[in-house]
Design goal:
Layout lengths: L3 H5 L13 E2 L16 H12 L1 H16 L3 H23 L7 H10 L1 H37 L8 H17 L2 H29 L25 H14 L17 H31 L4 H5 L7 H10 L2 H35 L18 H19 L1 E5 L5 E5 L8 E2 L2 H34 L6 H23 L7 H7 L11 H22 L1 H5 L4 E2 L4
Length: 546
């Protein structure tokens, strides 16, 4: 078994850069971020915030329980293996290549400029879309919770809360990176603390009828009434949402230029977050199953229409009403923290590609005092606001056959109602997740390519070849769950396996990613032909003083 030091690596500070790379410190003409501003705890905050653990438990787990019953903890255990194997690739590169370009810088050194451009292009798109989706979730949750428990109806509903969130994220990101960290820390403590307290109390009291490892960590608990497809197949299908529950954890990869001792802080932070989240997800789902009783994993925990009420009921029963209140607050603030994490990640990709001339160079400028990529921040904030305004005009009506029809316009409150922020979140998050998963797989492919070309002396077949290949197989599960069911002819086969069906507009969401990739290919072709020096510059600026 590999030790932690083997996983983290031994690259020494000040190690020579790969041939052709440019040391950031030697380019006095480039605006720089706030060097050494944050430490490993801050990097961990951004990783946790991007994944939004409590939201994953509240809204992903019910769907997973409907597919795998009481075996949801087993689903998370298997999903964690895939993510930990991907963590090896992240750790390897973050120990060797330090840049605000994060993933696309790593892909550049493994697979070349063309693939790296698409990696950066997709991360830009994914983060931009994910911020808008998280703002929609924040607005939706704030509107539901405030109207339900305080009786206050905000004009324009969730849209107003989302727009307020956009302004707050702009202000927090515009100033020093430390400001964001100070805001994230209390949200993280509330979010993780409320889940751990609930898990602890259920574990101590033994749930509804005692501990049960048989039905939670074997397929024995997956065959329940109302659970489909159940069994081993249901466990495999549920892994799509299991892996999705980690999406956003990679946010720490872009803080190499702003963190102290980044070649240790970034890999340790990201790998630790993957491991901690694995423990938290497994423990929380185990606690929820035994708290309700494994027989009710399908009809109660897996009842999507009442989510997240089962968690609130568990908090009420095993701890007290005050924890329910804290969890209601936590799931809302968690969504806001995710907005900030995705926003900061996006603008750093924007900044990195701007200073390299891949995007307009104005986006590579930083504020003279705060050292924040302020032009990128303004552009991304404007984009998010425009997306929220567009979503405000999507309306829906329920048809007699149970289906839903969508249109653009203003809801009349009788036939048509405004589509909720939570629904809008699901649409956009699907687009962002597809983008991220493709890049995750590219990073895995980059590891053996880089190691064999530039680091052959330290090449370890288990860590640098087998691990990324197996990780890709895990990552393909959620990717296929998004792109295969909408396809004609073969789509029915995948929904027959147990993957969720994709009625409109879910069936067109992959097309947004495909369209973005096509635009990227055309733009990359233009750059390579008209500005080859800028194209070759892609992903070559690295921090060398570490």
């Amino acid at each position: 078994m590999a030790s932690q030091e083997e996983l983290v690596g031994q690259t020494a500070p000040g190690a020579a850069l790969p041939e052709g790379d440019i040391a950031l410190e030697q380019r006095q003409d480039l605006d720089k971020l706030h060097i050494n501003a944050i430490g490993m705890p801050s990097v961990m905050y951004y990783c946790f915030a991007g994944a939004a653990p409590i939201a994953a438990m509240f809204f992903n787990v019910p769907n997973m329980a409907a597919q795998a019953g009481a075996s949801v903890p087993l689903v998370f255990l298997l999903s964690a293996i895939g993510l930990l194997l991907f963590g090896i690739s992240i750790v390897y590169f973050s120990r060797r290549l330090t840049s605000a370009g994060g993933f696309y810088t790593w892909v550049r050194h493994g697979l070349g400029a063309g693939t790296a451009f698409q990696a950066g292009w997709l991360m830009l798109f994914g983060y931009a879309i994910f911020e808008a989706s998280s703002q929609a979730a924040f607005g939706g949750l704030a509107d539901i919770n405030i109207s339900t428990y305080l009786g206050f109806q905000m004009p324009l509903g969730w849209v107003t809360y989302a727009l307020i969130g956009c302004v707050l994220v702009f202000l927090l990101s515009f100033f020093d990176i430390k400001w964001s960290t100070w805001w994230l820390a209390p949200f993280l403590v509330l979010e993780i603390g409320s889940l751990v307290l609930l898990d602890l109390m259920i574990t101590i009291r033994g749930g509804a009828s005692g501990h049960d490892l048989l039905h939670t960590f074997t397929p024995a608990g997956s065959d329940l009434k109302g659970v489909a497809p159940g069994g081993v197949l249901g466990i495999g299908v549920a892994m799509a949402l299991g892996i999705w529950s980690w999406i956003g954890f990679e946010a720490g990869a872009v803080y190499g230029e702003e963190s102290r001792n980044p070649r240790r802080a970034v890999p340790m932070a990201i790998f630790s977050v993957i491991l901690i989240m694995a423990i938290l997800y497994i423990w929380t789902t185990y606690s929820a199953v035994i708290g309700l009783g494994w027989q009710h994993a399908g009809d109660t925990l897996g009842n999507i229409t009442i989510a997240p009420t089962p968690y609130y009921n568990l908090a009420d029963h095993f701890v007290g009403g005050w924890l329910k209140v804290l969890m209601i607050i936590a799931v809302t603030t968690s969504s806001f923290a995710a907005c900030l994490a995705f926003h900061n990640g996006m603008v750093r990709y924007f900044y990195a590609m701007g200073r390299e001339g891949i995007l307009p160079r104005v986006f590579g400028r930083t504020h003279p005092r705060w050292k924040s990529p302020h032009y990128a921040i303004m552009a991304q904030s404007l984009f998010t606001i425009l997306v929220i305004i567009f979503l405000a005009f999507i309306i829906q009506k329920n048809n007699p056959d149970g289906s839903v029809s969508y249109a653009l316009g203003i809801a009349d409150g009788k036939v048509y109602t405004q589509t909720s922020g939570i629904t809008s979140y699901a649409w956009l998050a699907t687009i962002g997740t597809i983008s991220f998963l493709v890049v995750y797989i590219l990073v895995n492919f980059s590891l053996p390519a880089f190691a064999l070309r530039f680091d052959r002396a330290n090449f370890n077949p288990l860590l640098h070849l087998i691990a990324p290949i197996v990780s890709c197989l895990f990552l393909l599960i959620p990717l296929l769950s998004f792109i295969m069911p909408p396809l004609p002819i073969i789509g029915d086969f995948f929904t027959g396996l147990g993957f969720f069906p994709t009625p409109f507009p879910l069936n067109i969401l992959p097309l947004f990613v495909i369209g973005w990739v096509i635009i990227g290919l055309l733009y990359a072709f233009y750059l390579a032909r008209r500005h080859p020096e800028r194209y070759e510059f892609l992903g070559r600026i690295l921090r060398a003083d570490v």
